[in-house]
UniProtKB/TrEMBL annotation:
Residues 71-211 form the EngC GTPase domain. Residues 62-213 form the CP-type G domain. Its main location: cytoplasm. The gene is rsgA. It is found in: Cytoplasm. Monomer. Associates with 30S ribosomal subunit, binds 16S rRNA. One of its GO terms (molecular function) is metal ion binding. InterPro entries: G_CP_dom, NA-bd_OB-fold, P-loop_NTPase, Ribosome_biogen_GTPase_RsgA, RsgA_GTPase_dom, RsgA_N. One of several proteins that assist in the late maturation steps of the functional core of the 30S ribosomal subunit. Helps release RbfA from mature subunits. May play a role in the assembly of ribosomal proteins into the subunit. Circularly permuted GTPase that catalyzes slow GTP hydrolysis, GTPase activity is stimulated by the 30S ribosomal subunit. The lineage of its organism: Bacteria, Bacillati, Bacillota, Bacilli, Lactobacillales. Belongs to the TRAFAC class YlqF/YawG GTPase family. RsgA subfamily. It comes from Streptococcus macacae NCTC 11558. GO terms for cellular component: cytoplasm. Its cofactor is Zn(2+). This is Small ribosomal subunit biogenesis GTPase RsgA. GTP binds at S111, K112, T113, D114, G156, Q157, T158, G159, V160, G161, K162, S163, T164.
Length: 290
């Protein structure tokens, strides 16, 4: 039988096939080969009526996310709050470069805009990301048409309201939510498992919230490719391996000085590049000591 994993919990994989849901486990040979089924996997499985089934094969994936563990994603709604916690463009760009690296389409959704007294700064930020080519929205009615016929993942910092938004979209889900912790200034973790839900003509996944993000970009070339406004100009740089820092005739820096690239994005790029170089140096020292 053919189907798709829509939930993974405690070693069980729940596979949807032709409108029915089957509880399955993975065969032992998957563990021996180091292969793990994930939510979103298209699989072959066997299942007898009223008994536990087994996953027999996993089809090729078009992409994957480690955190959350989900595959074959069409798009990700990156939720970031305007207040409580305050808007964090550095964290937003960390999400975006991860998704660009994974070749997954991002949608930026700004929550809690009702807590802002002045929308002028919001409009400036919106313009910035729309100029790059991203969807940047903060009204529910602008989001729902984008979900049809797509597998959508919601991710973002804890406390931005992911589960609350999903409950608004589909009240029957009744996902657990929590208030912001006054002492910590961030939301309590509320989502326990990754599951796909049928909502707005598509499938959506809520994910565990987190306040930091480790990304998988390990070189300046990959980082350059993860900034779309850099990538489309970098071919005009004098040096093919230009890092857009100290090199002469850098097309990216020319665009920055001309106001065609936002300073905040360039500053975040420099920070991420420094982090990559520091990790590389730490790795070299570790290897040398061994």
């Amino acid at each position: 039988m053919q189907g798709k994993i829509i939930k993974a919990l405690a070693g069980f994989y729940y596979v949807e096939s032709q409108g029915d849901i089957y509880q399955t486990r993975a065969r032992g040979n998957f563990r021996k080969k180091g292969h793990t089924p994930y939510v979103g996997d298209e699989v072959e499985f066997s299942a007898k009526e009223h008994s536990e089934g087994y996953i027999l094969a996993i089809h090729k994936r078009k992409n994957s996310l480690v955190r959350p563990p989900i595959v074959n994603v069409d798009q990700v709604v990156v939720m970031i709050s305007a207040r409580e916690p305050d808007f964090n463009p550095n964290l937003l760009d960390r999400f975006l470069i991860l998704l660009e690296h994974k070749k997954i389409n991002p949608i930026i959704y700004l929550s809690k805009t009702d807590l802002l007294e002045d929308l002028a700064d919001l409009k400036t930020v919106q313009k910035q990301y729309q100029e790059i080519g991203y969807h940047f929205i903060y009204h529910l009615e602008d989001l729902t048409p984008l979900l049809k016929d797509k597998i959508t993942v919601f991710m973002g910092q804890t406390g931005v309201g992911k589960s609350t938004l999903l409950n608004t979209l589909a009240p029957d889900l009744k996902l657990e939510t929590a208030e912001i912790s006054d002492s910590l200034g961030r939301g309590r973790h509320t989502t326990r498992a990754v599951s796909l839900y049928k909502v707005c003509g598509g499938e959506m996944a809520d994910t565990p919230g987190f306040s930091s993000l480790d990304y998988e970009i390990t070189s300046s070339e990959d980082l350059n490719a993860a900034f779309p406004e850099f990538l489309k100009r970098s071919s005009a740089c004098k040096f093919r391996s230009c890092t857009h820092t100290h090199e002469p005739d850098c097309a990216v820096k020319k665009a920055l000085h001309a106001g065609q690239i936002w300073q905040s994005r360039y500053d975040n790029y420099l920070q991420f590049l420094s982090e990559i170089e520091n990790r590389r140096e730490t790795y070299k020292k570790t290897i040398k000591r061994k």
